[in-house]
Amino acid sequence: MEAVVPVFRRYGADAAPDEAVAAALHIPVNELSVHFSNRHVLVKEATLADLERQKREHVEIFQKYPTAVERLFGLIQQGLTELANTPPEYYAVMQQKFPQAWDVLMQHLDTYSSPQLQQLLNEGIRQRLFRSDINIQLVTKILLEQTNMLLNPAVFPPERYNMAEVFRCIFLYYIRGLCTDEGARIAANHFSRI
Q: Is 68 exposed, middle or buried (0-12, 13-18, 19+ CB in 10 A)?
């Protein structure tokens, strides 16, 4: 199913030709309807598979970087890469035309991203890289709402804004403000590469 996501990103989840979708799945076109009752089911299943891919990439990021600050910046870098490889209108189409897939994305933020961020913030505080006076639940909520704001085409119309730059401005400066002096030094190294 992961192979379908680049097809959706290229053409749009609503406009991707059945032939391209079937080719990505390595099945004949006439078997699409056998495996998926409609495009909504297909987009939802592809979204679930893509989220699993992202989780595997997160494991690799956590293995690569020893500190919470580096891990958080690694996640941000992955997010920037995802946005760079995703047409600006992709998420708007998901939100408007594929509500089940959009709900999967929003649920993922609540059940996976939120606990992951809370864990990173806790770890960073223990490592003395994030300020000890931050409200972990509130900062997590702010980070997630920043994600929602980024993906909301009414706030940042993709035809008007470079989404990768919006992502950078929303997250990087905010996270730097959460850091202690030592955390800021580590963040500065990663910040310069993003």
A: buried
Burial class (CB in 10 A: 0-12, 13-18, 19+), 135: exposed
Condensed to tens digits (0 to 9), the pLDDT of residues 55-68 reads 999 999 999 999 99
Residue 124: closest CA among 85, 192, 175: 175
Reading the block at residue 65, the tokens are: 């970087």
pLDDT (0 to 100) of residue 192: 65
Between 113 and 76, whose confidence is greater?
113
Beta-ladder partners of 179: 130
pLDDT at 167 over 80: no
Tokens representing 47? 């979204």
Nearest Cα to Cα of residue 179 among 67, 80, 104, 30: 67
pLDDT of residue 180 exceeding 90: yes
* 8 Å CB contact between 95 and 19: no
Threshold 0.90, pTM exceeds: no
- Using CA of residue 132, residue 138, residue 140, residue 144, what is the dihedral sign? negative
CA dihedral of residues 97, 99, 101, 107 (deg, nearest 10): 150
